[in-house]
């Protein structure tokens, strides 16, 4: 009877250790999942969606929006392979993403060669314009040594505007935090 009890406790101890290991692994997966989610959506928006709440459009009265694109991208894309353009944009956006870590701005989206950021949204920031302009200047410097597939130097152009916007998640599949308004259109 004593041996049976000892064996039961040894088994319980082993199961307890497995449970602890599983709990640690689950916590690590949750951390990684949160990290990925927060890289795709603003933290406040991601948390609201996780809680099952809708993220309706909110008015943001003071935001700075910046668009960056490649000069003559259409001509460049048409004269090079899709793989070359994909690789070029991958290198470019990886650089841009890395330098945004130094600025309190939000990467809204990329579409083709267009890279869009905003300051002052979704969290208000009185220095939103300074942050976006500093990021834009860093982006301009970051492309100085990048060459197009035909060895021509890469040139970008930047448009910036400040003012009010409406921002929120539109649709339900692949949620994306979007910005709308004349401030966006003018930038």
What does this structure look like?
It is a single chain. It is built from 6 helices and 5 strands. It is of the alpha+beta class. The chain has a 5-stranded antiparallel sheet with strand order 2-3-1-4-5. The radius of gyration is 23 Å and the shape is elongated. The model has no long low-confidence stretch (mean pLDDT 91).
Set down the secondary structure blueprint.
Layout: H1 2-40, H2 43-50, E1 58-70, H3 73-78, H4 82-100, E2 106-111, E3 114-119, H5 128-142, E4 156-169, E5 177-180, H6 182-186
Antiparallel strand pairs: 1-3, 1-4, 2-3, 4-5
Helix pairs in contact: 4-5
Q: Roughly how much helix do the residues carry, as a percent range?
A: 40-55%
What would you report as the Rg, rounded to the nearest angstrom?
A: 23 Å
Distance between the termini: 80 Å
DSSP strand tally: 5
Structural class: alpha+beta
Q: Which range does the strand content fall in? A: 15-25%
Question: Could you list some keywords that capture this structure?
Answer:
elongated, 23% strand, 187 residues, 49% helix, alpha+beta
Summarize the structure.
The protein is of the alpha+beta class and 187 residues long.
């Amino acid at each position: 009877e004593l041996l049976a009890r000892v064996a039961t406790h040894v088994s319980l101890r082993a199961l307890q250790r497995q449970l602890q290991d599983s709990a640690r692994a689950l916590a690590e997966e949750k951390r990684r999942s949160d990290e990925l989610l927060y890289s795709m959506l603003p933290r406040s928006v991601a948390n609201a969606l996780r809680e099952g709440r809708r993220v309706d459009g909110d008015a943001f009265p003071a935001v700075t929006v910046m668009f960056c694109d490649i000069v003559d991208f259409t001509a460049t894309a048409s004269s090079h392979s899709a793989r070359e353009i994909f690789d070029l944009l991958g290198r470019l956006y990886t650089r841009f993403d890395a330098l945004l870590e130094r600025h309190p701005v939000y990467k809204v989206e990329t579409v083709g060669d267009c890279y869009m950021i905003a300051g002052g949204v979704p969290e208000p920031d009185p220095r939103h314009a300074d942050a976006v302009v500093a990021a834009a200047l860093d982006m301009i410097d970051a492309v100085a040594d990048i060459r197009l597939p035909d060895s021509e130097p890469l040139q970008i152009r930047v448009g910036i505007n400040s003012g009010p916007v409406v921002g929120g998640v539109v649709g339900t599949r692949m949620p994306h935090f979007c910005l709308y308004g004349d401030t966006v259109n003018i930038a």
